[in-house]
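Recap slide: Transmembrane 6 superfamily member 2 isoform X1, sequence and predicted structure.
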Amino acid sequence: MDIPPLAGKVAVLSLGALPLSYALNHVSALSYPLGVVWMGALILGLLFLAIYSLSRSDIYYDPLYAVFAVFSFTSVVDLLIALQEDGYMGGFMAFYTKEGEPYLRTAHGVFICYWDGIVHYLLYLAMAGAIRKRKRYRNLGLYWLGSFVMSILVFLPGNILGKYNSEIRPSFFLTIPYLLVPCWAGLRVFNQTQAPSCCTPNMVEEEQRKGLLQRPVDLALITYLIFAAFFTLFRGLVVLDCPMDACFVYIYQYEPYLRDPVAYPKVQMLVNMFYVLPFYGLAIYALIFPGCSWLPDWTLVFAGAIGQAQFSHMGASMHLRTPFTYRVPEDAWASFFVCNLLYALGPHLLAYRCLWSPAFFLRPLPGPPAHHEKQH
């Protein structure tokens, strides 16, 4: 997969969030929730107009260029929020976490801001750079889509169901575009043409003729997926207060963060159980039976989703913003990190396998007509 060049123009525009957020932090009108909402909407509108006037041809070529440019700006804002909440800087976004979205001050909120400010930011620059160079960015777009959707699926319900539901402010409605954009962007990314395959019909036929024992990498991935599926189901049962002794021991001795009343970990485990678990079953099927051409795309989506989920979950489980009683006990650190790190890396290895050698997943291609010599 070719990595496109980063978009310099978008990067420069996004860094405007630094002086702007510092200036807004000292505006007295933003000490009220409604002031934060109107100012946020005004800034996003002016930002879109600036991007449209500077990059009209790129937006006409692909409207997602404007989306990535605007979101790169908000990614810098999120990184400022995370750095400020962890005490690395001050005087930038205190007004927003106080009057706009106070739940961003939770451990989970801090880590989704880190992910958005680093991983999503680089993805936005890379995808915007690809659009400027008229190159493909389908694989990057699918990874971003999964990561973005997973973040929203956990963060928004967690805000409503958790202990911060009484602190939802009008700025919460600024997240509505975050619900609509992934639907539209996802359709556009999926509809992009795939990169031409270098696999010949003979290569596809030869690869799909191999049994599972002749494909040790696939066998190892299936083994991993089986264990990951059981782990996903188990943690889902844990947050549903399953009365089994194993669930009781796990939630108190290994991951007490699952009991945190902020609700993000509980929502995360339920999302995993209802969405990730079925995908694991389908992925096992696709690794056994050839011709499942949908798997490479969806592995990228779920790799992004699980990467974002595990980064936020692992970080919040150890963060000082999480009450001490809900943090991972010191004697469980090793098992906690090994299990959760493997859970995060597995889908990425599966996605790499699908991109590295896609012949097994391609539909059988018609080969060249056979030429028979006449026998006299």
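The two ends are 52 Å apart (CA to CA).
The chain has two domains: 8-191, 201-361.
(End of recap.)
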